[in-house]
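hi!! sorry for the late reply, been swamped w classes. u asked for the two structures so here they r. pasted raw, havent cleaned anything up. first the sequence of the first protein and right below it the tokens
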Amino acid sequence: MRGEFVSVWEDTFREIWIPLTEQEGVPDDVFSQLYRELSTVLKEPTGEDAQAIPLADAIQLHEAFDRVLFLAGVEIEGARADEAFAASGATNHEDPFQRRAAAEAGLAPLIGDPTKCIRLLTLVLSELADDKKRRAEAKDRALDGIVNDTAKSRQAFESVRSADLVGERALVAFLEAAFEILDDLGADDLSNRYFNLLERFIDKFSLRYDLRRPCTLCPTLPGVFASLVRDIRALTSRDPHLDVLMKDFENVVRDLRQDCSDGRIKTCIQKQVNLLEAVGRACPGVTGTTLGVICDQVGSWPHEKLKAAMKDLYGFASDYPGIRHGGTPASALRRVDMRDLVAMSILLVGFTPYLSNGLNPDVVYRGT
């Protein structure tokens, strides 16, 4: 399987970034520049996680503190409220949960009802997190605080996990942009070192790209095919009937390890055709129950000859003795063998995007 960068992102720090930067002559602010770019491909937090944004921002946390007092009906002078906020020590913590706990501890004596305090602070933090303008302001201040500190920027860069990233396509864009950043910082010496480390990483982890100069990550044919199979698995897993058929097909392919007789090869072809037929039946507007009729109804073919090719493959599975039916013995030119298993599996997988509206070909090629 030719994998994606997003699944092995956390290995890049050890394999690429440490050997790249821990040599003489590398600018001190290298991670500051890299993290600024990486921050553009991080997911936006949602729900309760989004409240960490105003909690991490000293300005908005102070505003939230004052807003909670107002909503609770606590009449207090501004100077005294400022003193209470400072005394809480909320901004002394790095962890947002500790900041929240400190703010709640500072509010509780003034409000007199801990439950009300928690409820109002949650409300106010949610309002700030949901306000796009205020959210952007807090994020910009947080980013400035990180990239203006070389130690913090390295720590922030290293702490990014695969689950934090928007997706494969955005990550590839970052890795390509990193080359230009490094070229600006350290000229050819640094950018070439990065290119070589990235190329070695792709080979080591068998990723779905060829790396071309100056630094362009191009999907490979094996990678595209592996991505298609992965997405078909994801598609079928969402439907109990399709899931069973997919697993039936994969199981009989595995069974060939013990017995690759013509009978088992026929079973493999039969199971895959059954799967393809069921996938086609789930396509909107399809009422047919056989693959031949389904091919006429999906309306996704760019040319009649492609549709005819799919129908001919179905005709082979139906007419060859022992695959889907008794078939026509006289039509068999020879016994099926492993070349037929390999060829038919690839051909039938390749036709799947025509028979399903649940696959995104652009995602198959470029990633999510």
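now the second protein. again sequence first, tokens right under
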Amino acid sequence: MGASIRTLSGPDIALPDDVVEQLRGALHGQLSMPASPGSDEARTIWNAMIERRPALVARCVDAQDVAVAVRFARENSLLTSVRGGGHSIAGNAVCDDAFMIDLSPMRAVQVDPARRVARVEGGATLGEFDRAAQEHGLATPLGINSTTGVAGLTLGGGFGWLSRRLGLSSDNLLAADVVTASGERLRASKDENADLFWGLRGGGGNFGIVTTFEFQLHRVGPTVLAGLIIHPLDDAKEVLRFYRTFAPETPEELACWFVMRKAPPLPFLPVEWHGREILVLAACYSGDVADGERILKPLRQFGHPIADVIGPQPFAAWQTILDPLLTPGMRNYWKSHDFLELSDGLIDVFTDFARRLPDPNTEIAFAQLGGAIGRLTNADSAYARREAQYLVNVHGRWADAAGDEACIAWSRDLFTAAAPYSTGSVYVNFLTGDEESRVRAAYGANYDRLVALKNRFDPTNLFRVNQNIRPTAFTLPTPSVAEQRPVI
């Protein structure tokens, strides 16, 4: 019952039956192979473009399991991926013929309301975290889709509706329990292994596997003022010129984003608008609802919207509002840029491409940053794009492989057309598998410090199936994610 499995240097090796069984016996969780029950579940991730089959999957249930799995990978020089929530656009959770360390069974969330601290295991999702914290009227800044994994989001920085007020997910990290490439279990915080703690806040999964995150919580909700204002795409240029003067002057309690797409069949939209191009303004005010009504009034009164469904609602519910548009099982390809401003030229690019969307599920999503994100400097953590005021996610999304060529080409063309207006930096969590060359741009001036940290904690690049920061002495070829899927 041995396994044929890839090594870090590339060629497959045959792991003897007794070696595999020793690993199985050492785990509290399960060890699965391609024919094992549940193996398809373990290898299936959010982005349906990623279709890969690992040779072995260690389904860990505690930090000791993770340490055992890491030592096994190191001792056998195995190509190894790490799965948290399985939501990475690049599909880094899984590789063909490799060893997967799967944290998805580790989903506990413990909230200490007196200290306003949450301990969150590495396989937990945003929805699980939000629900546990909101039982006490607490929250920390997370993303916008409840099925996203807390681990990958936080390690790449993490931003969402609360970030202008409270900073990034990683800015609210107090401590982390980590298994390093040597299999050692460490605690990282500002007082313990502070250099590792610096790297974990934005440096991705390059330095170890975080088994538990400890977050600062804040009073939020449980009711916020949030919702959507929907305009015809024909009015987009006028509305967005108003938006760019309105949004920067608002308090940090407000985040206002916009999306250009074809209208889904939402119950509050007139039927005649279903399937037509629209501009959606999405707003969340997390302060006093009455203040939010006053602050949002000019935006709600501007132009001639098709619908306005902004109102008081539970924050936990608002955190799931986009879930129906981001369900697992669809094919996804993203491109992203950062911006300092929303210029006329950029508005023209977005409007032009929104008129020729290649699929009803594809969209242009534009997020407002700034505020508390910029109160730290780029040197305070590995996250190095704090000057950005906005970002775009060119979100190619479609159901059938027959749409691959058209949807990917549209995404890349929009990305190229928007590039002259960008800062040149990029959010590391939005990098796809064919963008290894942009990793340095994601980290900017912090890159060399991250390499030094990688040299110390992972000099053989065991943790390489990620947005990889290569150690200086690493000379073996690093298979890119592009090698793990068909070339398109």
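hope this helps!! also noticed smth abt the second:
Residues 404-418 form the longest helix (15 residues).
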